[in-house]
Amino acid sequence: MLRLIIILLFVTTQVFAETNTVSSTVVTNSTPPTASSPSVVVNNSDVCKTAVAGAVQTQILGISSGITVTDENCERIKLARSLYASGMKVASVSILCQDPRVFDSMTMAGTPCPYMGSIGVDAETGWKENMDMIPEGSLIYAKWNDEVNQIKVKEGVESDGAKLAKFIIAAMVMHSGIVTFFP
Q: Which of 43, 50, 97, 116 has the fewest Cβ atoms within 10 Å of its own Cβ atom?
């Protein structure tokens, strides 16, 4: 039996490998997950807000965000309508006058915006005396400011720049020890 196994080991048939070329294409779908923006829903037509959302995705990191933006002009108009419907016409116009365009157009039309309950010429006087309360961006503010500055120059009232210059000169004189009197 042992002889038979040894003979079988030495007597073998020749086996030749056939040439076999294997060609394959591997498709791997490894796209990164996308960043999805939150849906900010503003469906009510009585809300003065707009939704804005955005997202950025890289191969490593994805960021998304969403916010609402308030439309102040829309709010102003809705408040003015509500006040007008309540019979408060002067208050309604006052709300609209917070917009510099409305403030300018009312002044140019000869009907200045109400000021602290006063209307007409009294309101215009009130606005000119308290120009810091005029809406920012108003063209009328620049015109009135120039008029006030011209009146101050005619009356001899010094501007803030002139006062500052005198103060600096006085400080330098006092620092050097020279006594000088300014008229």
A: 43
